[in-house]
Structures are given as C-alpha cells and as structure tokens.
Amino acid sequence: MKLTAPTYHVVFGFFGLILGFSLTRIGFADYGEVHKMFAFVDLRLFLTFVGAVVMTMIGYAIVAHNAAMPRKPLHRGTIAGGVLFGAGWAVTGACPAVALVQLGAGYLPGLATAIGIALGVWSYRRVHARYFRWDTGACQM
Q1: Cα–Cα–Cα angle for 11, 121, 135, nearest 5°?
Q2: Which residues cross the membrane (predicted)?
Q3: Model confidence pLDDT, tens digit, residues 110-121
Q4: Helix, strand, coil proportions of the chain in percent (round to 5)?
C-alpha cells in the first residue's frame, strides 16, 4: 500500500508519539535514570535496553529468514564514532531520539543536546570531506 504524504506523516507521527510516550514512561528520557544505567547502579534500564536489542535481533532474523544478508565492511570511523556517540549519551543522558522526546516534554537541557547533535553532524561533514575522505558506504550523506 502506497501512503500519500499526509497519511505517511500521520502514521509515522502516531508511532513517534507512542515511542516518545514509551521512552518517557520507562525512564529513558530522565537524565538521572540514564545516569544510573551507565553507572550500573540500577540495572532496570540496562536490562530493558538489552531486551529491546534481543527482541529486535529475533524480529530481524524472522523477517530475513533464508535471505542472504550482505556483509557490511567495518569502516575506519566506526569505532571512534561509537565511542563519541556513547560518551555523548553518557554525558547528556540522551541519544538522538531521546533528545527529541525531551524537547517534546519541555525538558530544556534536551535543547542543548539537540543543538550538540546538529553541530556534530555539521562538523562531521566538513571534517570528513576535508581530512578523511574514506568510503562511508551506505552512510553516505
């Protein structure tokens, strides 16, 4: 079924609201709760996150059953990017989706996180184009 632009936005907006509500409800949008997870003080969020990853892996395996999945190369910037992403998440208490949820909930520090994300993407484009120029594969911008 082909969705028209307005229907597309309504459908995905609805699922976005459900995601935002769920993330807020379980505590992923609360800096204190995320800090406890990264400090291993309270494993509730950590186990929720692990459970979500496992469920996604199972769903992916079911959908991709008997399909030849192409191998993706490990790019030179993957490890550094992952470390920066994790450090930013630990410092701000928000990944990109949660920053938007925090903005929607009126949490002002979420604005600083969203600005930091935008500046990081903007900086990456300039630094990569000038200094690195390695193949970004499917992550081409």
Answers
A1: 100
A2: 45-67, 79-101, 107-124
A3: 898 899 889 988
A4: 70, 0, 30
Longest alpha-carbon distance in the chain: 47
How do residues 1-25 score in pLDDT, each as one tens digit?
Answer: 677 878 888 888 898 889 888 888 8
Q: Are 101 and 29 in contact (CB under 8 A)?
A: yes
Determine contact, residues 23/98, Cβ cutoff 8 Å.
yes
Inter-residue contact 116 to 54 (CB < 8 Å) = no
Please count the residues of the chain. 141
Phi, psi of 135, deg, nearest 5: -65, 125
36 and 120 in contact (C-beta within 8 Å)?
no
Do 98 and 16 contact (CB within 8 A), yes or no? no
Residue 2 DSSP label: P
| Domain assignments of the chain as residue spans, ordered by start | 5-139
Confidence of residue 124 (pLDDT cuts 50, 70, 90): confident
pLDDT in tens, 67-82: 777 777 777 778 888 8
